[in-house]
Amino acid sequence: MASKLLCLALFAPSLAETAQKVKVEFFAEAGCPFCRQAIAGPVNKTLSMPSVAAIMDFQFFPFGNAYFVTTECKGAGDYDMAARKCFNKNCGAGASQPPKDCFTGALVCQHGSQECAANRFLACAKTVAGENLLPFMSFTHCVEASYDTFSKDTVSACADASQIDKDAVFRCYSGSEGDDATVAQAKATPEHPGVPYLLVNGQAVEQPDDLLKTVCKAYQGSEPDACKSMDTWPTHPIILQV
Ligand SMILES: *[C@@H]1O[C@H](CO)[C@@H](O)[C@H](O)[C@H]1NC(C)=O
Fold it and tell me: Where in the sequence is the signal peptide annotated (predicted)?
């Protein structure tokens, strides 16, 4: 009997650890108001609770409704939603036979060059941060919070505050590494009705404020304490950027 208990005591923690992490994929672009709201609100809250951050496999893809002009989807000039949707379908995550010119044409961002620049800085920060999700997401949080006065100084200050190597970020931004980082986000972005777009284990979460609730519900291991207190969170309805 005693040995059986000992056995359980030894194995229980490792069993808990083997519960699969909840896969969270977040797709957004710099500057869109409800993307910023989601980043400042539910995304920040969820990542800021270490016990919850620990049960998530969280990924953020800073590309949103941007697209590259292709022969089939077109879309040169101003942002064109139909071209964007065509691009996501033909060239994004899950595309079965992406054409060769998916990422060779002009890049079009929904709200112009500042958004393209900020997305590229975010993609570079993601590359520089590597496996270190929290510095990257702190950087994202900082850039989005300062988006109205965005400049290179914003990037410097946010990199310093998030302990991301700012020289590496600027080097990436100015070179082909920045192109690669941007293409990687574009490739990983699936078809989506609008942004912000959140998937938990592949299922869309309509209200970003439901992120924590959804993650807690999806987790098969023992529930972190932080999961027990969140039923009372208010929901702020969002408007998608389409
Ligand atoms: C969360 O928000 C705080 C400010 O309220 C910020 O300092 C912190 O970097 C943010 N963390 C993440 C992971 O976004």
Answer: 1-16
